[in-house]
Design brief:
Blueprint lengths: L1 E10 L4 E2 L5 E3 L5 E11 L5 H4 L8 E8 L10 E4 L4 E6 L4 E6 H8 L23 E6 H4 L3 E3 L8 E5 L12 E3 L5 H12 L1 H6 L16 E2 L7 H8 L8 H18 L1 E2 L9 H14 L3 E7 L4 E2 L6 E11 L3 H11 L8 H13 L2 E3 L2
Parallel strand pairs: 5-8, 6-11
Antiparallel strand pairs: 1-2, 1-17, 3-16, 4-5, 4-10, 4-15, 6-12, 7-8, 7-9, 10-11, 13-14, 17-18
Helix pairs in contact: 4-6, 6-7, 9-10
Length: 359
């Protein structure tokens, strides 16, 4: 049993961790890991952000939550929602992040801990405080010029996507149409439909020059997996949600398990090996930060949506190597469970179980 900082589901209203028995919704839901990609906003800034006092001395970033940092080499644009009300938060004295209010609240409870490297890197504000310096209508973000980390294109643009949810991630979504069927279909629609571009004030230069960039080769499948999956399944537009879900599963499973990196520092390596290396490289270069939020909606019994906070807690270190080795040796040795599937589930649990709060 140890005591220290760890990420846990937390109720701001109650001022304490919200464990399963304290929840009205979201039992067994835990923190989920994202990488926040920092897309720097280039001049001209959106009006609501340009009006912030002292903005000339700060850099502004759209922060996009991704589970696939290794695909950032293929960015052609980013997606924002014209219907979401975003916020700009002063993360420290020099940086402003643009995201949803929900994401800002999660960030507020993950202050950076230099000694341990935990928390949202760069977030120097006291725990639970969130300095909202502007509210920004989603429509203002459309057409913004951005510098996207690792992208081949020196400037990309923020484009509209109506399917973005304010209840997950940050409301800002990176676009990698070579490997994401949703991104491929969305970009193709904007390229092919002049009326759609005109509706949102998108000029040709923001869309037409940007073609998908091959970044991952899937042997026997394609180095442009999203295009192939969409063609094979005859996806007509970004509104073909059922077909796109099938295409996404196909691309992501094949890409992760069989894919080989074509671009960047880790070209030639398997995607499943390069993924964490790419994440660490981005964070070390100041191009990204680590971020967590509840995997699904969690409501406390005091009727408040919970966040992920970095808290002091007592916890049991089930992932301790010596203990884990003994248990694995027993489970895979003399332990008789009569059903191979049961043994498989034991091993799967041992694989993910690392720390568990006991206070």
């Amino acid at each position: 049993i140890k005591f220290g900082k760890r990420y846990t589901i937390y109720s701001p209203r109650d001022g304490q961790p919200c464990m399963d028995h304290d929840r009205s919704k979201g039992e067994n839901v835990g923190p989920f890991d994202y990488t926040l990609i920092k897309l720097e906003v280039l001049a001209p800034l959106p009006p609501s952000i340009a009006a912030i006092e002292g903005i000339a001395d700060r850099k502004v970033y759209f922060v996009a939550a991704t589970m696939r940092p290794e695909t950032m080499y293929g960015q052609t644009n980013c997606w924002v929602s014209p219907t979401i009300e975003y916020v700009a938060i002063a993360i420290n004295e020099t940086e402003i992040f643009v995201c949803t209010r929900r994401a800002a609240l999660n960030i507020a409870y993950q202050p950076y801990q230099p000694d341990s490297g935990l928390g949202v890197q760069g977030n120097t504000r006291p725990e639970g405080t969130c300095d909202i310096v502007a509210q920004v209508p989603g429509g203002e973000l459309i057409g913004c010029r951005l510098s996207a980390p690792l992208a081949e294109y020196p400037v990309v643009y923020a484009l509209p996507l109506l399917t973005i949810s304010a209840a997950k991630g940050t409301g800002i979504v990176t676009s990698v149409p070579s490997d994401s069927p949703d991104d491929y279909a969305g970009l193709r629609d904007l390229k092919n439909k002049k009326a759609l571009r005109a509706k949102y004030g998108i000029t040709d230069e923001m869309v037409l020059p940007f073609d998908p960039v091959p970044i991952i080769d899937i042997p026997g499948f394609s180095s442009m997996s999203a295009e192939k999956a969409c063609d094979d399944l005859k996806v007509a537009s970004q509104n073909d949600t059922a077909k796109l879900a099938e295409a996404k599963d196909m691309c992501y499973q094949k890409g992760f398990s069989e894919g080989i990196m074509l671009k960047g520092t880790f070209a030639g390596e398997a995607v499943k090996v390069a993924k964490d290396k790419c994440r660490d490289e981005l964070v070390a270069a100041g191009m990204a930060v680590l971020y967590k939020e509840p995997e699904k909606l969690v409501m406390s019994r005091s009727d408040e949506e919970c966040v992920v906070a970095l808290c002091d807690q007592w916890f049991i270190t089930y992932g301790e190597p010596e203990w884990r080795e003994q248990v694995e040796k027993y489970v895979n040795g003399s332990f008789e469970c009569f059903d191979p599937a049961t043994k498989k589930r034991f091993n799967e649990s041992l694989d993910w179980l690392h720390e568990h709060a006991c206070s």
